[in-house]
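User: quick one - fold this with pyridoxal-5'-phosphate bound?
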Amino acid sequence: MNWKDNKEGAANIFGSHQMREPAPAEFIPKHKTPAPIAYQMVKDETFPQTQPRLNLATFVTTYMDDYGTNLMNEAVGINYIDETEYPRVAVMCGRCINMVANMWNTPEEGDWKTGAVGIGSSEACMLGGVAAWLRWRERRKAAGKPYDKPNLVMSTAYQVVWEKFCQLWQIEMRTVPLTHEHPTLDIDEAIKMCDENTICIVPIAGVTWTGMNDDIESLNDALEEYNTRTGYDVPIHVDAASGGFILPFLNPSKRWDFRLKWVLSISTSGHKYGLVYPGLGWVVWRDRRYLPNEMAFSVNYLGANITQVGLNFSRPAAQILGQYYNFIHLGMEGYKEVHSNSMAIAEYCHDEIGKMSCFRNYSKKLENPLFIWTMDPIYDETAKWTLFDLQDKLMQSGWMVPAYTMPKNIEDMVVMRVVIRQGMSRDMADMLINDIKNAVEEFEKLEYPTQSRLTFERKEAQKGKVYTH
Ligand SMILES: Cc1ncc(COP(=O)(O)O)c(C=O)c1O
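Assistant: Sure. Structure tokens for the protein plus pyridoxal-5'-phosphate:
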């Protein structure tokens, strides 16, 4: 009998001694715990957390339909690396890489395009970065030049993975500050930072901090001029963690991908707008020539000679099945519909926030289904609350809407962000907007400034700015 049907078992769970004792925290328990009780204990640990679909902080998929979910659950025990045991998983992975590469207009011919699966964009970015570094090193070696001072150029709005990449591989990170005039990568400044040791420039499609896109086509043009003038070969790796699955559907004529000569690799998260549950990234190279041989490792102890590219060895296969299912089920048409809806809902929220006199949207137009806003500077002069208070207030209704400070150079700016994904409806957007309006109404009745406001003003006073209430 299934234990779930065992009514007596269920009654015993809360009658058990485990339920009145603290949960194991330091040592593996000495004795066994019956499965239904252990299950309940683990389940209850996750019970009080917020509703995943109300989490507007994350880019990562929180909703898949039952077919996709079942496929993934059924494959939960499959290790991707066991290609000999599950050869079709490797085939499906190759097909997904083909589809992603073609979606990004790869010029590569042949049945199998060059790419790799990752646990997320982080692994995919690392692989793209390592390939750029090894290619640069090879060229330097061949020219008899030193190869001990590689650098990489991108804007300060980088995602933390690039900091990790540069630390782990000891690559100098050269960052172009975002400014109020240049809310995306300032191309002239980026080019000025390049030299013979630059392994690549990394523009971002779907900047984590703002939701905007760096201008990759103009960067490509500027690099064409720069590389011709200097004789260097500085390429582009596009970090398209979010944009990689948005641009091909919502703005297919925009040239940001392999249609541009200097774009040699692109990474994305299958688990963001690829619409698969967490644990999936993709990286694609323009051509096999751009994937250094040192990055492909072969092992022979799994029953065949297997070559793989990746930082991890074992990895779940379920996400690959989920991605392949989405590609078949949704097709280009379905992806476009889902993302157009997310965009329409994001635009609706953007308009509604823009109508509130206490707020000011950061950008006029949306390029991806996410956006940020700040307090209106005039309103801010007399406000008794901050966006951090609003974040806390919204959390009481289950919403996760993060407030944060912007990167270096404009770090005095506090913003709030919503990321709209599959799973968010217009009705839910109305609930969110209402909750925001209600929260603001309550804040406006405050007699005294909140703690977060006082802290903010103390910091501002140190810089000479004084607020009045
Ligand atoms: C631009 C960018 N790059 C890389 C990443 C890392 O992605 P992942 O969480 O898939 O590892 C993110 C995540 O938000 C991102 O926004």
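One thing worth noting: The chain has a mean pLDDT of 93.
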